[in-house]
Amino acid sequence: MQIQGSWTQLDKQNRDKKTVSVPVSELIGVEEGRVEILPQKKVEESEQHFTVFSVKRGPRGAGSAGLWAVGRTLFSCSSRDLRDHWVTQLRAALRDRSASRPQRLLVFINPFGGKKRGVQIYRTLVSPLLELAGISAHVVVTERANQARDHILKKELTGFDGVVCVGGDGMFSELLHGVIGRTQQEAGLSEHDPTETLQPCNLHIGIIPAGSTNCVCFATVGVSDPVTSTLHIIIGDSQPLDVCSVHHLNTLVRYSVSLVGYGFYGDVLAESERHRWMGPLRYDYSGCMVYLSNRSYSGVIQFLPADPKFSSPRDNTRCLSGCRVCSESTERLFPQSDASSNASFYSTSQYSQDSSQSDGDWVSVEGRFRCVSLTCMSSSCPRSPLGLSPAAHLADGTGDLILVRDTSAMGFLKYLHRHTNTQDQFDLPFVEVHRVRAVRFSVPPGEEESDEEEDGGKGTEGGGDRAEQECERDRPERKSISQQHLAERGVERGMGDDRKKKERGLFFGPCCSRAPSVSVWNCDGEILPHTEILCRVHGQLVRLFARGIEDGARTRSCRGGGRKCKGRCVLHT
Ligand SMILES: CCCCCCCCCCCCC/C=C/[C@@H](O)[C@H](COP(=O)(O)O)NC(=O)CCCCC
Ligand SMILES: Nc1ncnc2c1ncn2[C@@H]1O[C@H](COP(=O)(O)OP(=O)(O)O)[C@@H](O)[C@H]1O
Ligand SMILES: [Ca+2]
């Protein structure tokens, strides 16, 4: 749509322009008079004016790739009739798009996520924009962990076009479990069967970032910004996302999108839970503490490699909005559907996830590792702008398995540090990365923590043992989500013993005498109660109100350390 005429462009930078083009798909709303929305709604009545709100790309700069703001254009007409005509036409154009935009949302706010600003963020930044766009929202401020997940699993959802969380990755995970669980229940499928082809979910998920890591938001939008995310929801963007299921024996343990991590990331999470009062800083503090403890763990990893002809974790590409690798995967995952449209998503009966899943041989790797990580996407976040695996794809049906073998403290620091800059963290002799469809992990025989080891020394070696017992007494409760979730799903069989072993091991530190022989799994910020797990990637299982990171020179992966990229990458602008 092109609008021409006598009007005032309020954006100072564009004051001299005579014409502004705004795609209807990026219109947010139209109001009569001179109207401002943010930071506060202000209306100045005028018979000749109307104000158009649309998506405006933010300023370019480090960390702001993908930042959107609300563009505001004031139109001045020669008569009230002409003004009313324009307003009517623009509102009709918006109505025409209503099929592809949400009309009614179910919003869950975690008042305790991140810096505890969820409610304020929703009230001041999100709600006014939804109102402007004519979207109604049913808002639930949560009072306990798992409330959002349970609501989605059990309550009536008819009439909602999407569910939205205001919080962090843990809150997103609640929605993810609710939406996937509900969809499988309705389809009569068992989530506990690790070979089941799961039904893709129709209900879109929106994320308003208000947590500590905000990895899922950052990796699917490009920034961690509540206004940008709200605008993606309003215009009905749709981004498919791979999901990894984690099973122990024949029981579903959890789903993950960003990180299933053993060793360093598991230990950081376990340590960080004791310092929740620090807010997002708990991860930095715990990261330092765990790094200083210098641990590595034995493990046997088996994985099913993905077909290397489609992509590789070291091909130096980035998964950007409209990614070719992901689109071609859609064609493979939904062979009978029109891959260019949303039909593939809504016609879920056409889903044929696993035509090639049984093909190929498992590869086995054994050794001592600093960390073992599996991620379905890049897992970029403000701490690591290119992420755990910069070339991973959001929706290609694969995950990247990163194996960091035991190395010197300096070597591991080098590896970690490369997450914060543009150097290749895989270009180190003790690191390997594989694009995979499934992963199995076990502890080599004889390396499991035995009861003997647990009790070992108690009462035999004096002081050191007392210190260890004190560590245990000081241990805080774990987050309740996994416990409740697992208990409710009947997973508690044998869990007590397993968890006891790990919790004993976790708090080895200055006051403890013996390093633990097993770590714990960090699954999108939740500690798993099992060590031996099977992970499987389910291509495009859910959809987010997002579009991936928008193309632009500065969003490309930079391996030039600032020289080759000439300042065009996300880190060097
Ligand atoms: C010398 C500098 C070292 C810096 C290392 C940076 C590595 C960062 C990789 C981050 C990957 C993040 C994957 C996402 C995990 C989240 O799901 C999880 C829970 O988040 P939230 O619900 O918001 O609390 N976050 C973490 O597990 C934090 C990992 C931090 C590790 C330092
Ligand atoms: N009202 C609540 N009280 C306590 N915990 C909650 C509440 N609402 C959600 N949670 C839980 O808090 C955990 C952390 O939330 P999240 O929003 O991800 O913040 P953060 O990123 O700071 O960890 C999630 O696992 C979620 O299940
Ligand atoms: Ca993927």
TrEMBL record:
Per the record, its GO cellular-component terms are:
membrane
Q: Where is this region: Disordered?
A: 441-498
Q: Which domain of life is it from?
A: Eukaryota
* GO terms classed as biological process: ceramide metabolic process
Q: Which Gene3D superfamilies match?
A: 2.60.200.40, Probable inorganic polyphosphate/atp-NAD kinase, domain 1
Matching InterPro entries: ATP-NAD_kinase_N, CERK_C, CERK_PH, Diacylglycerol_kinase_cat_dom, Lipid_Phosphate_FormReg, NAD/diacylglycerol_kinase_sf
Q: Name one GO molecular function term.
A: ceramide kinase activity
* Basic and acidic residues biased stretches: 463-498
Acidic residues biased stretches: 446-455
Domain DAGKc intervals: 100-250
Protein name according to UniProt: DAGKc domain-containing protein
> Which organism does this record belong to?
Conger conger
